Amino acid sequence: MLGHHYTQSFLETAVASVTAGCNLELSYGMRNNVFMRIPQALAMGNITLQMLHDRVRPLFYTRMRLGEFDPPAMNPYSSLDLSVVQSPEHRNLSLEAAVKSFVLLKNVRGTLPLRAQDLSSQHFAVVGPFADNPRVLFGDYAPVPEPQYIYTPRRGLEMLGANVSFAAGCREPWCRWYSRAELVRVVGAADVVLVCLGTGVDVETEAKDRSDLSLPGHQLELLQDAVQ
């Protein structure tokens, strides 16, 4: 809030945050943070003790439910180890969530979904800077992924037995350098073309916003060439 000039000081920020219902701060230093100004705001009468109780109560309720104040032997989460994180059960649940969260905006001529029995008989072109670059598939604040669990569009289709040709067209999301000849060569021989575009953390992330929603660099040109 201070960095965006909504407030003029950490004290103002503390008052505004508590008043608005905020009860958790992601601090970047124990001496230079907002919540350390709360006692001063309380002493000045800008906030009340009841407000603080109301903000803190759900935090401690959640911590109690997680067993943070129980002996480790009583906490079921204490027995979990890294083998659970990528267990087949959790991976299957993640897959189910991904499948159920797809949003189809337009489906001309019923092209989608692709049928598994047609994958081997058709020639697929997977193009774009996001077609086979695992590093750019994750957004800001995403955990560091394990490479063996990353399935790019190209890798996913190949694992399903599809006949796939690939052309990035651009080396990275900024797409400052674009090879139209590479794209046209791959797209021209395909029955189905998947164009994988976007931004990613290289282009926009926290403290690195953009002034418009346009595709970066030559990505729009890449898309138009693929369609034509």
Automatic annotation (TrEMBL):
Q: Name one Pfam family in it.
A: Glyco_hydro_3_C
For this protein, the record's InterPro entries field holds: BXL (IPR044993), GH (IPR017853), Glyco_hydro_3_C (IPR002772), Glyco_hydro_3_C_sf (IPR036881), Glyco_hydro_3_N_sf (IPR036962)
Q: Gene3D superfamilies from the entry?
A: Glycoside hydrolase family 3 C-terminal domain (3.40.50.1700), Glycoside hydrolase, family 3, N-terminal domain (3.20.20.300)
The keyword Hydrolase is assigned to this record = yes
Q: Where is the Glycoside hydrolase family 3 C-terminal domain?
A: 103-226
Example GO molecular function? alpha-L-arabinofuranosidase activity
- Entry superkingdom: Eukaryota
List keywords of the entry alphabetically.
Glycosidase, Hydrolase
Query: Might you name a Gene Ontology BP term for this protein?
Result: arabinan catabolic process
Q: Which residues form the signal peptide?
A: none
Q: What is this protein called?
A: XYL2 arabinofuranosidase
Organism of origin is Cardinalis cardinalis (Northern cardinal)
Q: Which gene encodes it?
A: Xyl2
